[in-house]
Amino acid sequence: MIEEFSYIKSGIPKRTIEVKISHRIIELFSEGLYSSPYKAIEELVSNSFDAGANNVHVVLSPELRDPDATIVVIDDGEGMDEEGLEQHWIIGKSTRRKRKSINKRKPIGKFGIGKLATYVLAQKLTHICKKNNKYLAITMDYSDLASDEMAGIFGEEAKELVIRKLDEKKSREILRPWCNGDKEGYKALKLFGHGARKSWTVTILSNLKDMGKKIERGRLNWILRTALPLRPDFVLYYNGKKLRSHKMDKGNLIKTWVLGRNLCEISQPCSPKFEIDEDKGENSNSDTRYGLFHPEIGRITGKVEIYKNDLRGGKSDQIERSNGFFVYVRNRLLNVDDGGFGIDRNKLRHGTFSRLR
Hints:
three-stranded antiparallel β-sheet
């Protein structure tokens, strides 16, 4: 059993921030916008996407009806420092929409009120963050807010939230229950030790309410796959398992060609210096086991997929239209808005590969 104080009370108090919002306004916003627990969790994932995360892991306790059950969302986004935690609790304001994302993404969160989605799921919300090699924690207890409807939108007194400072050892101890596992999601989001992410945020929902306790795991899996942003630089995990957008299900996928394995003939105008290359250290099913090698460019890997149905629609349209071409240079995704390789974004279609190559 995870003792509550381990992630709600640990750390050295640094300062307090004031949150002027009543229980009533939270009810109006959260219960009106997030009548479904699944949409509330989806909004937390959207917040991680807006923070520039490449990997997000949603972890649910085995039995949500247990008193110590939790819903946890872990991401490797930009994290929050003291100023970020204070800005986070300004209701209706989203600072991420006023600055360019580190991944040049179009934000998809609900204008700074996505945090209120947590109210329908749990009584307590805790953020534990790493940024600039500093570890901070903060907890909102919704039950402490005034519930007097006559108080109007804002209560007479501000709620004070305490920002707590943690060290790496304590942070590791607190987060151990959600970071240790053999499945892919736990390995992809390494928070401590060699190869750990430079910044991250762990959102812990505890003291679950009835709506949080009634979540059906299979349905949540389907909701997340349906809403999953279709981008090669964003991966979502659920209880350790990597989720794949439902648009990319095998029933929709017609055929895949991997460069160097299926696409072995290199025709003009490609350089004759390209050679088929195989990295036998890679898993036999890995898309990067096979590729091409050029003495001046180096190793190149890639694949082509053809689908029966259009991959656009849903969250993908909210983020940006996909033309089906994802190009990386030194592990960085080149976006259409980066200049389109000199190609008008509205013409980035069938001629893309010819002109790019």
